[in-house]
Design brief:
The protein is mainly alpha-helical. The longest helix has 39 residues. The two termini are 19 Å apart. 0% of the residues are buried.
Amino acid sequence: IRDVAVTGVQTCALPILVKCPNLQKLQDDSKLSDITKTVAINYTTYYECAVKNDAWIEWYQIQKHIYESVK
């Protein structure tokens, strides 16, 4: 993406890749309400991580296509 206000400067909306957080674990004596809460939290954590990973894959493929088109 070129910044129209500044000549020759390239800006990028590159997603920041960080290690996905560990999922929560259950205790041996967990109640059903604890299990439900943990599953919901882990699903959200996993989904957010998957979205970030997909953004990186898309960004990489676009950059690869650009690189290959100019070499």
